[in-house]
Design brief:
Layout lengths: L2 E3 L3 E3 L6 E6 L5 E6 L4 E5 L5 E5 L6 E6 L3 E6 L4 E5 L5 E5 L6 E7 L2 E6 L3 E6 L4 E7 L5 E8 H4 L14 E7 L4 E5 L5 E5 L6 E7 L4 E6 L4 E5 L5 E5 L6 E7 L2 E6 L4 E5 L4 E6 L6 E7 L2 E6 L4 E5 L5 E5 L6 E7 L2 E6 L4 E5 L1 H24 L1
Parallel strand pairs: 1-30
Antiparallel strand pairs: 2-33, 3-4, 4-5, 5-6, 7-8, 8-9, 9-10, 11-12, 12-13, 13-14, 15-16, 16-17, 17-18, 19-20, 20-21, 21-22, 23-24, 24-25, 25-26, 27-28, 28-29, 29-30, 31-32, 32-33
């Protein structure tokens, strides 16, 4: 049984549920996007709200934070770019005809996925649509991006695509994953096999692998060059909601109230993390600890190797939609409208001691051998 933890700070500024939480690459700021139609910027130094972004005409579904700019997408069919210093809206990207539920920023591109069955690519600076990706028969739910330079040998590339080598991956409620050339908008691969909506994607470009989680209770691994399905992970008894890949270990959170850890190279399930009383909505690996957020309104910390529950973080009233970790603080964002901040120094310190002890025993063991 894990010890119960209490939050060091509770931020109650939002007037509606928080749908997403993004951490800037430099770790200095957090961005929350809410059902109240606004986004808020928080400093990780003092946990204070330093920005309030207003302008969307409906709820914010997702947000993304860069060091200099914030991006939000909304049920009002638009995406907005904000200045993190002044709070000024710098751009409005219009074109989608339904809810925009996911965005991704890569290089100078802004990608978006929508209930209008399309994904789109925009120039971050010019407020202009560059490409539309049309071909899914239902909502586009999740996005990933990579460069063909990361996965293709020179001779494998198609002649017309040698200049611009960016590819977009989309997962949809039509049960398919599609890979698109960004420059032409042409579909490069359609990955068939799932029998339910594709809810999450994780890309491992150096190993040419893509992982997809679905409402059909499975995770599938694909070769992103050939489109070949490599493995099917089948042990979950509910929809696969979230994925995290760490050192060839894949963590999957599910509506069956568990997280499972798989060794990617063999497909073997090596651990199951139980104790959740509802769906696992979000997860994050940090320093040998697996942190989870659940529909039961609790966050939890597990020893990633043994599966032992180490701590329960109680205080939220509704589902935890997103978690972030920075400087040994755990940030949890919930549909109850609060951002809660928890001190995880103790649990991290204990875990480091354990890992050090394990390494010492291993070295002693190998010395004896």
């Amino acid at each position: 049984m894990g010890n119960s933890g209490s939050a060091v700070k509770v931020c109650t500024d939002h007037q509606g549920g928080i749908n997403w939480l993004s951490l800037s690459p430099d770790g200095q700021r957090l961005l929350t996007g809410s059902e109240d139609g606004t986004a808020r910027l928080w400093s990780t130094a003092d946990s204070q709200c330093h920005g309030h972004f207003q302008g969307h005409e409906s709820y914010i579904t997702f947000c993304h934070l860069e060091n200099e700019a914030a991006f939000t997408c909304s049920a009002d069919h638009t995406i907005r770019k904000w200045d993190v210093v002044t709070g000024q809206c710098l751009a409005i990207y219009r074109g989608h005809t339904s809810i925009v539920n996911r965005i991704l920023v890569a290089k100078d591109y802004l990608f978006s996925g929508s209930y209008d069955r399309t994904a789109r690519c925009w120039s971050v600076d010019k407020e202009k649509q560059i490409q539309e990706f049309r071909g899914h028969r239902n909502c586009v739910l999740t996005l990933a991006h990579y460069s063909s330079r990361d996965v293709l040998e020179e001779e494998e590339e198609e002649e017309e695509e040698k200049v611009s080598r960016d590819l977009l991956v989309t997962g949809s409620t039509d049960c398919t994953v599609k890979v698109w050339w960004v420059s032409s908008g042409r579909c490069y691969q359609t990955l068939l096999g799932h029998t339910g909506a594709v809810l999450c994607l994780i890309l491992d470009a150096p190993n040419r692998e893509l992982f997809s989680g679905s409402t059909d209770y499975t995770i599938r691994t694909w070769n992103i060059v050939t489109g070949e399905q490599l493995k099917v992970f089948k042990e979950h008894q509910g929809s696969v909601i979230c994925l995290e890949l760490v050192n060839r270990h894949l963590y999957s959170g599910s509506a069956d109230r568990t997280v499972k850890c798989w060794f990617v190279d063999t497909g073997e399930r090596i651990q199951t993390y139980k104790a959740h009383k509802h769906s696992v909505s979000t997860l994050k690996y940090h320093a040998g600890i697996l942190f989870t957020g659940s529909g039961d309104a609790c966050a939890r910390a597990f020893n990633s190797r043994s599966g032992v529950l180490q701590k329960i973080f109680r205080g939220h009233k509704f589902i935890i939609n997103c978690i972030q970790i920075h400087n040994e603080l755990l940030y949890t964002a919930s549909h109850d409208g609060t951002l809660r901040i928890w001190d995880i120094r103790g649990i991290c310190k204990r875990n480091k001691r354990r890992l050090k002890k394990e390494r010492t025993w291993k070295e002693m063991g190998s010395g004896c051998a």
